[in-house]
Records
---
Amino acid sequence: MLDCRNLVVTYESTPVLQNLSIYIDAGEIVALIGPSGSGKTTLLRCIAGLEVVDSGTIHLNGEEITTRSANLRRIGLVFQDNQLFPHLNVARNISYSLKIQGMKQKLIDEKVTEALELVGLTHLSQREVFKLSGGEAKRIAVARALVAQPKVLLLDEPLSGLDKELHARLLDDLGNLLRLRGTTAVHVTHDQHEANAIADRVLDIRNLMSF
Ligand code: ADP
Ligand code: MG
């Protein structure tokens, strides 16, 4: 499914990813752990096409995508701080990527409704995003990432910084949602408990590199 081989990324002569290899099966949820600064975000950015690798290859479903531009990779990304578009309402945040693809409005409306149902927030479709609570904004970020039916969903510490109760609820909901849809996902966290709760497999990024 997703196959990264011998990825190398160096920032100003400091190696960040050193011969990193990781293979993820279709439908598998992998949690990626590792200390701050160990390269977790950098790896996700490479997979998503937001970062250029110095060497190594990335294959998705047998096709090499190492140098393919980000918008053609069909890889979804959820950031810790959501990065919703502040000037667009909920529906327009979710529909943004579909509009860019040139999808017809009627189909876009159907897909947005479906994505909102998935995260249980149909009633917030016209809300401005700055009026959302932390938990709502997180669900909208997940809906926005899933609406384009990505082949792989990457989540970069999506549940960090939430209070304990909300964290537990969203962790539960996110796990159920990913499994229900058979989503292939890489979930980055520094929380071992969260990793064990959501993932089929927990990997420490330091064990994926060879020196
Ligand atoms: P993590 O997500 O595991 O905390 P990162 O991938 O964000 O780690 O960062 C790994 C290392 O690369 C850190 O030392 C960080 O300072 C460095 N780094 C990340 N992005 C850049 C950049 N654009 N330029 C220079 N150094 C960077
Ligand atoms: Mg990070």
---
Amino acid sequence: MNRSQFPEHFLWGAASAAYQIEGGYQADDKGPSIWDTFTQQTDKTKHHTNGQVATDHYHRYKEDVNLMAEMRLKAYRFSISWSRIMPTGEKNISESGLSFYSDLIDNLLAHGITPVVTLYHWDLPQALQDKYGGWESRALVPLFADYCRILFERFGDRVTYWVTFNEQNVFTSLGYRWASHPPNIADEKRMFAANHVINLANATAINLCHELLPSALIGPSFGYGEVAPFSSQPEDVLAAKDANQFNNDWWLDVYCRGQYPVKILHLLQNLNLDFEISAADDVLLKSAHPNFIGLNYYHGGTVRAPSQAQSDVVEKQLTNIDPYLMAADNNQKSPEHYLFQSVENPYLDKTDWGWEIDPIGFQIALRNIYDKYQLPIFVTENGLGAFDTLDSHQNINDDYRIQYLNQHLLELSAAIASGVEVIGYCAWSFTDLLSWLNGYDKRYGFVYIDRDDFSAKTLTRIPKKSFY
Ligand code: BGP
């Protein structure tokens, strides 16, 4: 693999999200987000970790951008915290919040780094949750558009690449079904309803961007994993098709074609899990055309037919909820119960956190998405969470991460060679950061941060071997 196998202006980058790095949770005018509240009011994160200080990027962003430049990144994907821009999510605008991101963008550009801005990476202003019930209310669609309009107007002269929602599939299921993210709800019907409202907000933001910034490029980032059949038994093959519809097409078909997969829609109706889709919704969803699909790839999944359960197959454990594959639970009313059951793939190694490592699945994902939707793909996340440790010389020899990235980049180059149009690749993540539920020990960065779950310590930045 060499550079020439990638397009000339390929965006080699790394990614982050506001809540996971910024800290400064009450700095200047910032209002609380649902993540600020959730981490204070529940004990669902490891060791009660939260993003109050995080990596203190809010105060140290210049140092971080200098490191990005030293690593020669061509792109940096970060998210904007809505409650930093609008402390209550609506009406009043915070100039200090805007100037933080404006300075960050200017700093990146001064170093030749292309900013890639995510509009929503899970940290809804708490005031919108309290006043309207968050994404369950259609009132959020125009409010999200108001917030996006401000960003498009203030930053559109300098930002070309925009991501609407980060992993809608993950934050809706963890937030509204499994009650392990805010707003801490366990109700499938409410999840599907909220998900539809977010689809409307996504389409509205894309249309607004195209109206205000005709040369900008915008799309959602989706947490995608191709689902394979456990065996060639036709029932397993069918289960895999259904699982792909349920886990992937359910979102991507809406983003790219403006319609839900019919079979899943019918199943939800039969289970009384359906939601209101008005004629106007239909028109809106069909009117929005993303310029690219953001792909966050960690791994895929394996399934067999629900009726094919046998003792030789290890069923996925629900105790360690894996956001990339909604495992069927024992609830007979869950849609998965009628479609598939998730099982372990016996051929794959796993990370320290039990996530399957499947680089070939990455090539399959890229090719399938491109073949199906014919849109350029921007890899907006891919990386390895591991326990990194400092050696006696204060170095981090993360050869396992280098190997992981190398294997995935080889598959990416194979996908490009086979004709898939890929805009860029942002590794997750640039520095170590807060893993939403797993604290600070699950490290992904090229740059080590000297802190742990219990103390912010020195927050010193130490480039790892993978950085070099
Ligand atoms: C994605 C999120 C990221 C990041 C990553 C790793 O779902 O978009 O924000 O957290 O996964 O996940 P985790 O921190 O759970 O290991």
